[in-house]
């Protein structure tokens, strides 16, 4: 029976699965973004988010707990020095999974898993969306567009007549 065995085994034995997730977590920490299958990305998210949460508290115990999982000094220093500074104010949700389609050979669903605070393109889009918001009501915006439309029609009318006149000659 498989009662209470809810996580994905990914077709691997326990030792292989743990080492694979540790290696993927190290790559995610070093490169900030990796491409993998959707199933592995979802398993990696469950594995790496508690480690990122531990990194917010830079204590000896939290370093030892994270090192016990990752076993890579370079990744630990990157995590505790750089990444923990960026995620300090975030309450959770440190990773993002973006689906990219299907793999050619076996049709496995592929995706990119990345650290949320390291995607500059999405951070720029988010900043521009915040800047464009106003507190005016939608009725005030509609009134402005209604007033602006007749002016635009008057400006267009002579240009259309000029465009029609040369074609008639």
Explain this structure.
- The chain has helices spanning 14-31, 38-55, 60-70, 73-86, 120-132, 138-168, and strands at 33-37, 95-102, 109-115.
- The radius of gyration is 26 Å and the shape is globular.
- Residues 151-157 have low confidence and may be disordered.
- The N and C termini lie far apart (88 Å).
- The chain has 169 residues and is mainly α.
- The protein is built from 6 helices and 3 strands.
- It has a 3-stranded antiparallel sheet with strand order 1-3-2.
- Strand 2 and strand 3 form a beta hairpin.
- The protein has 2 domains: 14-120, Alpha-Beta Complex (50s Ribosomal Protein L17, Chain: A), CATH 3.90.1030; 133-169.
- 15% of the residues are buried.
- CATH-assigned homologous superfamily of the largest domain: Ribosomal protein L17
Main beta sheet strand tally, sense and closure:
3 strands, antiparallel
> How far apart, in Å, are the first and last alpha carbons?
88 Å
CATH architecture tag of the largest domain: Alpha-Beta Complex
The percentage of residues in β strands lies in: 5-15%
Q: Assembly state here? A: single chain
Strand order of the largest sheet: 1-3-2
Helical content band: 55-70%
Number of helical segments with 4 or more residues: 6
- Could you name the CATH topology of the largest domain? 50s Ribosomal Protein L17, Chain: A
What structural class do helix, strand and pairing data support? mainly alpha
Mean pLDDT: 85
Please tell me how large the radius of gyration is: 26 Å
Sequence stretches where pLDDT stays below 50 over 5 or more residues: 151-157
Shape descriptor reads globular
Number of domains: 2
How many strands in all? 3
């Amino acid at each position: 029976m498989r009662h209470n065995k809810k996580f994905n085994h990914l077709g691997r034995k326990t030792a292989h699965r743990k080492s694979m997730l540790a290696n993927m977590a190290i790559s995610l920490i070093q490169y900030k973004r990796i491409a993998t299958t959707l199933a592995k990305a979802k398993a990696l998210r469950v594995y790496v988010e508690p480690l990122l949460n531990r990194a917010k508290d830079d204590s000896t115990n939290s370093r030892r707990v994270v090192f016990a999982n990752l076993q890579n000094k370079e990744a630990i220093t990157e995590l505790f020095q750089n990444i923990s500074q960026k995620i300090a104010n975030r309450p959770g949700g440190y990773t993002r999974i973006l689906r990219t389609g299907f793999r050619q050979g076996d049709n496995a669903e592929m995706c990119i898993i990345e650290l949320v605070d390291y995607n500059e393109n999405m951070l720029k889009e988010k900043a521009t969306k915040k800047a464009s918001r106003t507190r005016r009501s939608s009725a005030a915006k509609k009134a402005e567009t209604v007033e602006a439309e007749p002016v635009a029609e008057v400006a267009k009318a002579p240009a259309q007549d000029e465009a029609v006149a040369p074609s008639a000659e």
